[in-house]
Amino acid sequence: MLQVQSQCIGESLIARDVVSTSTESGSLRLRNAGALGKNKAVLQKCVSTETSTEPWSSKEPSMPTEPVPYGRKTQKPSPVAEVHILWITAGLGCDGDSVSITAATQPSIEDVLLGAIPGLPKVHLHNPVLAYENGGDFLKYWYLAEQGKLEPFVLVVEGSIPNEKIKKEGYWAGLGTDPHTGQPITTNEWIDRLAPKALAIVCAGTCSSYGGIHAMEGNPTGCMGLADYLGWDWRSKAGLPIVNVPGCPVQPDNFMETLLYLLYQVAGIAPMIPLDDQLRPKWLFGKTVHEGCDRAGYYEQGDFAEDYNSSKCIVRLGCWGPVVNCNVPKRGWMNGMGGCPNVGGICIGCTMPGFPDKFMPFMDEPPGARVSSAAVGVYGRAIRALRSFTIDTVNKEPRWRHSRAELTSGYSPKTY
Ligand code: SF4
Ligand code: SF4
Ligand code: SF4
Known about the structure:
Layout: E1 2-5, E2 18-22, E3 27-30, H1 40-47, E4 82-88, H2 96-101, H3 109-113, E5 122-126, H4 135-146, E6 153-157, E7 174-177, E8 184-186, H5 187-194, E9 200-204, H6 206-210, H7 226-230, E10 243-245, H8 252-266, H9 282-285, H10 296-300, H11 328-331, H12 367-394
Parallel strand pairs: 4-5, 4-6, 6-9, 9-10
Antiparallel strand pairs: 1-3, 2-3, 7-8
This protein binds iron/sulfur cluster (3 copies).
One iron/sulfur cluster is lined by residues 289-290, 293, 295-296, 299, 313-315, 319, 321-322, 341, 347.
């Protein structure tokens, strides 16, 4: 057997030549050296980095004989073997949160579903935007869950919950058709059926968390967030409150990180998720946009943009960052990049329970901003002037660094 560093093999070997792999040592074990025969150039490169004593030695290297199992065994296996995620997008929404999470990287949806994260149960996702199945093939999981035959499962709700009690006929939103009545099964009906059976419920986005855009003043549906519908004191059968991950759409990693936390709770290896009084994960929504903004230095110096073609603070253009709980400027949007005000977009408070009504009209200067930015403007101008003197000073080298034949550094040895 020949053991070769995997990074020098590249795509030159074919799978049947590989007997086993070790992700810990980064090496492959090959059936025979002939596997490399038609890849002489590769072989030449590899011999210098092989990890066994001789390339053609009959001595067996100490490699695991078991193939690498599902996931990596770096922790004890999850006490729960499998868990399902039922994701209903049939609230009043735009599916934007389902699309958003495809951009997650910490963790990615692929990491969670393909077993790349140690200690997690095997996860099955049932989301209509991302599923391969459709029609009855997709809906069967919902009926199984309703019958208690899909245990355990986490319910994800996307879109706001309409009020089906306020009209005489028809329905606002639904998923699937009731075979007995031939009528749509309303979103509310699904929530009523599944909420008592779910281990946990997570709201993806501001619509399902608090009502969002669809629940603004003048709406005809009377819609609301899930906690308004089920009750703010609602608890799952596992004792968990509703977990809100707001955002319009939800920041991808915020949602996936929260889901991962809950999956660890399902596996029994995480403590109770810490939530604030709006049922948001505390560690994600405990700070304001302003506290994490790249432009906060400009605000502090009273240096404000007059138009969007500027890297200065955009509070006078309508940014609500100082009073909005959101970590997006710190976290970025996709793989650490972006983040509303960091890249020139005013914060419109899309994560907040009062969104959108309390932040409209968008792009007008927030009411408090005029007073606070005027106050900061006076102080900031003075501070900026003083700092410019200091900047001049610290931009110059000390005077004792010269090439003259004298030491002027102030060196003064003492004898005792
Ligand atoms: Fe769409 Fe925003 Fe509602 Fe999500 S929160 S469903 S992105 S409108
Ligand atoms: Fe604060 Fe907005 Fe200015 Fe950033 S752009 S410093 S969040 S007011
Ligand atoms: Fe929404 Fe403001 Fe956060 Fe951007 S920074 S995601 S607009 S709350």
